[in-house]
Amino acid sequence: GAGVSQSPSNKVTEKGKDVELRCDPISGHTALYWYRQSLGQGLEFLIYFQGNSAPDKSGLPSDRFSAERTGGSVSTLTIQRTQQEDSAVYLCASSFGLVGGYTFGSGTRLTVV
Amino acid sequence: AQSVTQPDIHITVSEGASLELRCNYSYGATPYLFWYVQSPGQGLQLLLKYFSGDTLVQGIKGFEAEFKRSQSSFNLRKPSVHWSDAAEYFCAVGGTGNQFYFGTGTSLTVIP
User: Hey, which residues does A110 pair with through a beta bridge?
Assistant: First the structure.
């Protein structure tokens, strides 16, 4: 597609439920990233996929968080047993190498009640 | 370790006034540097980037930034701010493994 697409744009879930957030990167972009942006905060790196290499999961805050990228394209970020502190905007970005910079999606706003 | 500091959390300027947003970075090699803008409810949009060569880079929407190696800075400037420039601005440095390191952002308010 022309841009990075994320769905849903908004998600309200009850504490303890699992959620899945989807990211569809720009076609041909080999790298895909997930970031979290809490209210009034900067961007917190979560996970990075590059081609067929093992993902860099160093930013995942707990084992409740996981992500996969199927076929080198679409990625799903899963949060199990959601907590209120998980409420944030989850941003996905893709790139083709470092020099191009990232292209970000519009994000998924997650609210845990 | 790589890091980015944006010392100004919030800046207010009058429409038509000049703007400078500060960014300092820590990186062991020649950095890749970026500025992004985030309008309310939107994702981040790339304003400009620096990799090498001319230290003054031009971006979209009339923005420019100057890389100063001696000061480890990459400040964003605009000579005349428009009301539509009100947004959150993020500076980022490219690190190892294609990961970017972002500053905590500067919120810009433009008053008529």
Answer: A11, A88
Our CA angle for A104, A42, A2, nearest 5°, is 5
**E strand map for chain B:** 3-5, 10-14, 19-21, 24-26, 32-38, 44-50, 56-58, 64-68, 73-78, 87-94, 100-102, 106-111
pLDDT digit string, tens, across residues A81-108? 999 999 999 999 998 876 677 899 999 9
- Tell me whether A33 touches chain B (CB under 8 Å): yes
* Tens of pLDDT, residues B55-73: 999 999 999 999 999 999 9
Size of interface A-B (CB pairs under 8 A): 51
Residues of chain A in contact with residue B105, where contact means CB-CB under 8 angstroms, are 42
Residues of chain B contacting residue A45, judged by C-beta atoms under 8 Å apart: 99-101
- How far is it, in rounded angstroms, from Cα A37 to Cα A107? 9
B16: region left, alpha or beta (phi > 0 left; psi from -120 to 50 alpha): left
| Three-state DSSP class for residue B84 | helix
Cα distance between residue A21 and residue B77, in whole Å: 36
Instruction: Please say whether the beta carbons of B39 and A107 come within 8 A.
Output: no
Give the containing element (helix H, strand E) for A78: strand A75-79
Q: Of B36, B46, B98, which has the smallest distance from its Cβ to A98's Cβ?
A: B98
> In Å, how far from its chain's centre is CA B86?
14
